[in-house]
Amino acid sequence: xxxxxxxxxxxxxxxxxxxxxxxxxxxxxxxxxxxxxxxxxxxxxxxxxxxxxxxxxxxxxxxxxxxxxxxxxxxxxxxxxxxxxxxxxxxxxxxxxxxxxxxxxxxxxxxxxxxxxxxxxxxxxxxxxxxxxxxxxxxxxxxxxxxxxxxxxxxxxxxxxxxxxxxxxxxxxxxxxxxxxxxxxxxxxxxxxxxxxxx
Length: 199
Hints:
Strand content: 35-45%
Number of strands: 15
Shape: globular
Mean pLDDT: 93
């Protein structure tokens, strides 16, 4: 886990056994036993979309946190999964919007500009339900540059664990961009230093 004033990562060399993955969902499915190279997706964007190092080339190995998510479904069953990038509840245009991120980005939007994918925290950005439609469009546009905060109807926080319950049956839940349709509640915790990523 990165600490203030310390170098992040260590020098290494890419080998043939290092695994290349594309996007956040594929990244989340990877075993932490392998060193990974991620191309595309939110975590790659957080790191500046670095080109994959060639085999034998010098590079840097950095630890990356993961999100461990336990979902309670409407039938009472629970399921647990690992995510690499984010959990998003609701939408930008009405009601509540909650974005829980590992590295700050969800697609093109820098929803939590101060987030870091190895700081041991979840970063949470929320739009309050009372925010009007015009303000929502403006906040959504500003989030591309990460300038939507501070705002009195935009809340930001950090946590190691957090829980949410669905407010209504059709409230949208997305994990790394994949929609979960029959959820009742969700518990999210940060797992520090879960993966080793080459950049």
